[in-house]
Amino acid sequence: MSELPTPSRAQHSTPGDHAVQRVAQLASDAAPASVARDQSLLDGLTKASKIIEIGPAHNPLVPRSAGWNSFSLDHATRAELVAKYAADSWVDTAKIEEVDFVWHSGAMIDAVPAEHHGTFDAVIASHVIEHTTDVIRFLQAARTLLRPEGSLRLAVPDKRKCFDLYRNPSTTADAIVAYEDKRDRHDTRTHLDYALRMAAKGGCPGWFEGDTQTAELLHHVEIAWQMLRYRDVPDYVDAHNWVFVPASFALMMLELGALAFLDLRVESLVVMPATEFLVQLRPGREAIDPDAIQARRRALMDRILIELADQTRQIAGSPLHVPPPLPAADPTPPRPRSRLHLWLSGGRRDSRSPA
What integer best gives the mean pLDDT of the chain? Predict the structure, then answer.
C-alpha cells in the first residue's frame, strides 16, 4: 500500500508543495511577456512598507536581509526550520530568517501581539491559504493585521495545474461549516479526498497550462485506510484543505463578504502560466445591491464551469483538447537546462535546449 507521511503540527507543507512553487517561479522566469510573479505580489510596496509574511519558511519574498521592513509568522522557530530542511538538497537553509511570531496552535491572530494589529501595509501568504482548517478565520486574522489602506497578497494553487487536478472546488458552504465548527484540524473527508485524488504529471506535482502528459494518481485506493486513522489523531495533520480555480475563489470571497463574514474584497486576480493564481484583497466589502450581487454570483458560477471545462484541454483526445501552440520566437539566447528544469518537465528537452 502506498503511504503518505504522517506530519505533525510542526509540518506546514504537503508533499510536493515546494516543487509546486518551484514550477510557478520557473513559469514566471520562462514567460517574460506575462506578469512576473514577484512583481505582481509586491506591486505598490517598497522596502519601507511594513509587511508580515505568513509561512515564508526557507524562501521569503521580502527578507529582512535584503532590506525589507518585514516580519514573519511561521509554524516553527528558525532553528526548527533549519533542522526540518537540513536534509533537503533543494533548500538553501541560509535563506531561512529569524521567525518573529511562532504559531503552534490556537487562533493565528493570537500569535501576533496586539500592538501590531492594524499596522501592516501588506500581509503576504504564498501557498498557505489552502492548508488552513478555517479559511474564514484565517482571512479575518489577515484583515485584523492590516491598516485600512493595506492589502492581503496571496499565491493560491490553481487546481487545473497542480496535484489537486481531480478534486472538486471548495464552496462557500464548506467555508461556513468549517467556521461554525471552529475547526482547528482537517476533517476525515479532507484527508480522504486529498489522498485518493492526488495526481502528478511526469512525476511533478505542478505543471504549465496546456500540458497534455497523462496525469497519474499517486496513491492506490487502499490509502483510504491510512487516512481514516487520522480521525483519531488529536493533533493537526497537514493536507490541502481548500481547492480553487480562480472563479471559485472570487465567488467565495464575494459571498462571504455579502454575508458579512469578511471585510475584504478582491482587487486583482492574475492567472499565472503554471500551478497558481495571484490575488490582492483590500479591506472593505463591495457596496453593490442584491440584484447586482446575484448577477455577479451567476456569472462567476458560469465561469467556474468554463474553467473546469478548460482543464480538459490537457486531456489528449478530449472534445475540447487543443494542442499547445508552438513557442513564439524568443530573442534571448538559449541557456542550459538545469537539473530542476529537467525534473519539472519530466526529463523532456525543448527545442532550444542544448542536447
Answer: 85
Dihedral over Cα of 18, 23, 27, 29: its sign: positive
Q: What angle do CA 278, 139, 116 make, to 5 degrees?
A: 105
Pairing assessment for the beta strands 51-54 and 120-126 based on DSSP bridges: parallel
Q: What is the pTM of this model?
A: 0.84
Radius of gyration of the chain (CA): 20
Q: How confident is the model at residue 251 (pLDDT cuts 50, 70, 90)?
A: very high
**15 band by pLDDT with thresholds 50, 70 and 90:** very low
Query: CA 167 → CA 5, 32, 101, 239, distances in Å?
Result: 20, 31, 33, 13
> What pLDDT score was predicted for residue 286?
82
- With CA atoms as reference, report the closest residue to 132 among 76, 169, 175, 168: 175
Q: Are 37 and 25 in contact (CB under 8 A)?
A: yes
Greater pLDDT, 68 or 351? 68
Cα distances (angstroms) measured from residue 195 to each of 7, 18, 131, 227, 277: 14, 18, 14, 8, 23
Say which residues have a Cβ less than 8 Å from residue 229's Cβ, sequence separation at least 6. Answer: none
